[in-house]
Amino acid sequence: MIKQALIGILCGAVALTVGILIGHYGITKSNGSWAKDVAKDVDESLVEKFLSEVDSSHIRENLRELTKVPHMATTAGDEQTVQLMLKRWQDPDAGLDQAWREEYLVYLSFPDPKKPNKVTVVSPADAVLYTAREKEKVYTPDQDDAEVVQPYAAYSPAGQPKGKLVYANQGKPSDYKLLSETVDLRGTIAITRYGGAGRADKAINAAPYGVSGVLVYTDPLDINDGLMSDASETYPHSWYMPPSGVERGSFNTHYGDMLTPYLAAKEETYRIPAESITGIPPIPIQPIGFEDAYKLICELGGRAAPDAWRGGFNCTYNFGGPGFKSTSAFNESDVKLAIFNTEVVKNSSNVMGVIRGSVEPDRYVIYGNHRDSWVHGAIDPSSGTSVMLELTRVLGRMVKQGTWRPRRSIIFGSWGAEEFGLIGSAEYTEQYFTKLSERTVAYINVDIAVFANATLRASGMPSLQNVIFKATKQVDAPGLGATSVYDNWIRYANRTSSAHGPIPRVGYLTGAGSDYAAFVHYLGIASMDISYTYDRSKTNARIYPAYHTAYDTFDYASKFIDPGFISHQAIARTAGNVLIRLADSLVLPLNCSDYAESLEDYLNTAVPLYQSKLQAQGISMEPLKRAVASFRSAATHLDQVIRSSDLANETPLKVRRINDQLMLLDRAFLDPLAFPDKYAYRHVIWASSSAGKPTFPGLADAFANAELTVGSWARVHYHLSVLSQAIEGAAHTLADVI
Amino acid sequence: MIKQALIGILCGAVALTVGILIGHYGITKSNGSWAKDVAKDVDESLVEKFLSEVDSSHIRENLRELTKVPHMATTAGDEQTVQLMLKRWQDPDAGLDQAWREEYLVYLSFPDPKKPNKVTVVSPADAVLYTAREKEKVYTPDQDDAEVVQPYAAYSPAGQPKGKLVYANQGKPSDYKLLSETVDLRGTIAITRYGGAGRADKAINAAPYGVSGVLVYTDPLDINDGLMSDASETYPHSWYMPPSGVERGSFNTHYGDMLTPYLAAKEETYRIPAESITGIPPIPIQPIGFEDAYKLICELGGRAAPDAWRGGFNCTYNFGGPGFKSTSAFNESDVKLAIFNTEVVKNSSNVMGVIRGSVEPDRYVIYGNHRDSWVHGAIDPSSGTSVMLELTRVLGRMVKQGTWRPRRSIIFGSWGAEEFGLIGSAEYTEQYFTKLSERTVAYINVDIAVFANATLRASGMPSLQNVIFKATKQVDAPGLGATSVYDNWIRYANRTSSAHGPIPRVGYLTGAGSDYAAFVHYLGIASMDISYTYDRSKTNARIYPAYHTAYDTFDYASKFIDPGFISHQAIARTAGNVLIRLADSLVLPLNCSDYAESLEDYLNTAVPLYQSKLQAQGISMEPLKRAVASFRSAATHLDQVIRSSDLANETPLKVRRINDQLMLLDRAFLDPLAFPDKYAYRHVIWASSSAGKPTFPGLADAFANAELTVGSWARVHYHLSVLSQAIEGAAHTLADVI
Description:
Two copies of one chain form a homodimer.
Chain A: H1 2-26, H2 32-39, H3 44-53, H4 56-66, H5 76-90, E1 98-110, E2 118-122, E3 128-131, E4 153-154, E5 162-163, E6 165-167, H6 173-180, E7 189-193, H7 199-204, E8 213-217, H8 220-223, E9 249-250, E10 285-288, H9 290-297, E11 300-303, E12 319-324, E13 334-338, E14 342-355, E15 360-370, H10 382-401, E16 408-415, H11 423-431, H12 433-439, E17 440-445, E18 455-460, H13 465-473, H14 485-492, E19 494-497, E20 501-504, H15 516-522, E21 527-533, H16 554-561, H17 566-584, H18 592-616, H19 622-644, H20 652-664, H21 697-708, H22 713-734
Parallel strand pairs in A: 4-9, 6-7, 7-8, 8-10, 15-16, 15-17, 17-21
Antiparallel strand pairs in A: 1-14, 2-3, 2-13, 5-13, 11-12, 14-16, 18-21, 19-20
Helix pairs in contact in A: 4-10, 10-17, 13-17, 18-19, 19-22, 21-22
């Protein structure tokens, strides 16, 4: 009986234990169905699966399809790419939850196909002595496509100015100033080279001197490492720009639709009168190839230009004429521009695609690139679009297979009319301003995915540095076997961080070079932009040489930019890896201490530059120093809270609270009144600056201005207060929530 | 053995069952500790406990202590109230988690105690024929306190203008215009009565006509239902203003510290030059009592003023003189103002107190009132402060006892320097702009808690209407037995709602009458303001008659405004009830469909007023109609989601998502560029308006202006686009999050 009793007790004990185990683990409590989901973190095996499935041959085929025809914004070719994106993303097998188009009626500028712009040299008797090319030379059938737009300067006014030619270097204010010291510029035509100043600025800076028209070309020194011969040295023999290649572009200084500032450009939206637009050329301007520029510049009279003004031509870039030298066949002749551009309001589309988040659908990671090109745009932007389509293919398939759904929602944006001034992305942020401000975790921009095959190039908010590093360590560098993108990158661009030691250098997004601008400057969203790029020690090219020409084709890309598409693949893997981490991490991979380091770097630059002169004006930098110190201290504290918390097992509202602090950090740096003269620049840390100092942009600009302008120290003091308050405000958001 | 086996099986089964039960219910899962908390809703028994503990005698004693001495901003008396608040809130037994002071250096204006402002009648030979009172008559020791500030107009410039007196009614633009048709106003002194125009505007409107100084007084018709005798009719015999009573006030049109627009007024903050301040009187202005005004006005020459201009004096308010009538002893005499106000930057404090939230500490319900008065300020503002102290006593005790901790954090603000232009609250919102924008659920303002004993008066965002109704149904109306505040209120102020039928009328917070202004207009936070007030059918008083005089004392309040303090108690119960519901509700009690109804009301007012004239200008109202319809549809949908969800049992991130949509709704209506001429007004629905139409303020003002000004229809179109985009943007935030 004792034995039986013991067995009974034992059985009972076993049954009790089994019961407890079943009760505890086997039966889902009312909250059990979601408790596991809300605590989930990034699944590293899923990241590996993603990396292995990204396929260079798919990217190649995407690019081939996207670049069949020229697809300049709002043209039939653009509509073909809209349809392609919609077809891919709306395919029920694609795995995206939704895809649609968003249309805006935007202000664009085109040449007249029936009356092409002309640049000629005309004799005093009005005989045409020379005519610049109207089209680029045909090397492949691509250049022969009827839809290749004539090279032109979008937003240049129409007009037919005529005058003596002068060479004005890069068209910077200092260039015209120097030139004007010896030449009366009234009524002249200035020829300038790309670089040094914004496109529109070359004309804006010229107008006050009475210049009546401007030409712009790409000097072989700046793009081709000096090479000029299309018989052997340039495309189709290499990646270099052929002599007839012309960089097209948008000649404006603000971004977004210019008729509807701060308003989404819908049909009935109020539009300002076109005469009220600022930041566009007040006088006609036209780009030409260096073949023509050579003919004009090397015939100029006057004395030799300073060395810094000279490019790659075998002549002295004379200045001082004005006009051609007496020994020239063009002697006494004028240069005449006949520009027939017209402005039109046209329908431009964004194509949007969404993968809905499972746990936090109200948190967005946005990934975007523009779709429109100037001509075929194989590199700009279709390299990026090919990568985006490959990402949506691989991610969508995981969703479709049921193996994955991101914690947060992912929004893909294929922006329209970027080339005319980042219009599609800017209108999108205007239309959905509040919603996007409140919910967007980060924006990833991949425009030109590959400039060249040497190394990664990344720019973004410092808070994103860490997740970029993590991703790049997991991706193989193209063509280097087992070397990671990270290990390769650090050899090309690095710095020593006070916290991390030697690390790759991540740039800052201080300008409006691509569609990240509205996300960074208008919305204050943590953003990044990546690409693969060249070895600066091997070339001085400003950018890849076919940029905005009719040579930026699939042929060019696949032969000279990325044969095998392995750099495209590396970018897709890197960007996708970052995307998955932003979408899936339990704690957002946004590091506020790295942000603090950047603010300290800026402060450490600013103090020696400005402090003593400000003190002499009775202006203290102490509030700024205190603000940066507050930020550092709050960031350290928040990091400590994150490290010391067991967030997977605490209330999901705690990790949400921390994630909100991280997500919204950049919003604190916005001040709609900080930069009254800069359209849609609100971020006091990353706004563009003309002072050229690696520090707080508004402070640097106000200081530079105060040194030039009597009575403007008050503006420096004002901006210091704006800046200090913003940084203190950001620190408050990182501190304990109450 | 079979039996034993059966017993064994039975025991085993029991043990298994017990085990399962223990396992399921007895052992807390890792998330069990928080799962219950996150699903908790308002505890109605706790609300009842709160209501029963609010005690009128505590409120009375709070008021007695707060009103011992005058406590004008930044004076020693103000510091005493700071110390009182800190003592109460920092007391370890009080139950608040934290309390502290926040200091700002703010721009104020005071009379010179050594050189009091004077108003005299002087003969052509410069003999003083009459001198207006410099102090109010003493009826109780309170008026005899040395710290009673002389009546003055804060921000009136110093100066000693002298001239013929004219009566200018309320000092509206139309008043000066009418007067100027028959009188040359250059060099005159205008006497005006309070009402009809803002304080500063009475001088701002006068200056263009060459008026050199302005007097302002309170007419017995406007405040005392015509009664004038202090021997029997006015205080201390009734609540009416004694003949020598003078309404002090701040004579400025913008709110917040005027030297630091959009910046918190800290020591090193940039300050604009005082000369750059706008919205303050350009010429001296001084308030006087009706006793003196009577002596001056009834001696005036010229013809009788129109009926609408006349007040309660037994004379014809002559206008047309200028100057006194020939039969007057003052004939040929001038009126002279000698104003010695000085402006100073002084340290003003907010006192802040916090009860930390248990589940969502990063969500704030803010409750506030100013602390500073003009003199003893028993009603304005100490009635509200007495109520706030009673709330913190009762709520703090529940925290201290461990019976309660709010789900969300509660922040109490005792604002400084409100009387000078809502300065303390405005600086607070500037300093913590981002943090407060991101996290604040609602702001409750109780300034003057009790004007009189008849009925509740409430204003606020329509989204708060429902929770105000709920709370008022649970509170007994003062002196009416079992009648609720709600049932009493609906008899005095009601409307018929399309959704709810007859309901009490909740007003809108369209101006800057108290500290809610920065929360509504600058931050876009759902806000409300409540008080107990009078029966409009029984008195025409503009406001309670001792307002801003030396008679606003404990004696006055306890005898004539709220004997027994039962209306104070009703306000404390109502405001506290709303506060608890905002802090504790699982789903925020913010109703977006009620907001939709208000937008529809505004639209239905706007269409018949504006549509046909706008159509004639080629401007369509369709985008606005579509936006309001989108908002309605999104609101209906969100309400449906809330109703159909079992939020207590779903992931806490779902209710958080919905609550974020509700909390952030008003943020979507902000546009920092919508009202370039109105300082810190960004809310496109509730901004102040001068057009006097119950509809969208910017549209109404732009339309009114377009009818007067050639070429300004574009501004109407522009504002329509701003407004439509904001409402569409708000609708996007209410729609499905992806």
